[in-house]
Amino acid sequence: MDHVNEDDIAQLARHDTVATLVPGANYFLGMKEYPKARKLIDAGVPVALATDYNPGTSPTLSMPMAMSLACTHMNMSPAEAIAAATINGASALRVADRKGTIEPGKDADLAVFAVEDYREIPYWFGANRCSLTVMSGTMGHPQ
């Protein structure tokens, strides 16, 4: 969703579409412009974030880095970036009924961060502050 115009945004807002943005690719390719997240959000379009992990355009596994880029280059707040990386990502994949939020009946897939405030997750760009992961209820350690 890097290149959308006003008409595209209006159309997206009228449909059941989640705009998935991959700012890591813009960063790695040295692009000056990033997706228009603020315009999408303000128009009522749900926005998801992804790493677009691949060796050609976005060799990063770091969702916190994608969130940091969303905040610094796409005018998203930390809360919007976290929602885009969790519930909106699950919605984009059509699995929000079982993933994306912490609530009874959903899969226990979590990332726990060693921060004092949720806004630190995108703030510490390039640093792995994840101290614990839980996948399907099983605890592990991030790599």
Explain how this protein is built.
The chain is an alpha+beta fold and about 140 residues long. It has a single domain (about 5-140), classed as Metal-dependent hydrolases (TIM Barrel, Alpha-Beta Barrel), CATH 3.20.20.140. It has seven helices and five strands, in the order H-E-H-H-E-H-H-H-E-H-E-E. A three-stranded antiparallel sheet has the order 3-4-5, with no helix packed on it. Strand 4 (about 130-135) and strand 5 (about 140) form a beta hairpin. The two termini are about 30 Å apart. About 30% of the residues are buried. The mean pLDDT is about 95.
Broad CATH class: Alpha Beta
SSE ordering: HEHHEHHHEHEE
| Domain count | 1
Helix fraction by DSSP (H/I, runs of at least 4): 25-40%
CATH A-level architecture: Alpha-Beta Barrel
Largest sheet: 3 strands, antiparallel
Query: Could you tell me the number of beta strands?
Result: 5
What is the molecular shape?
globular
Within CATH, the superfamily carries the name Metal-dependent hydrolases
What is the CATH topology classification name? TIM Barrel
Strand order of the largest sheet: 3-4-5
Mean pLDDT, rounded to whole units?
Answer: 94
The secondary structure category is alpha+beta
What ranges have pLDDT less than 50 throughout 5 or more consecutive residues? none
Contiguous helical run count: 7
- Radius of gyration computed on alpha carbons: 15 Å
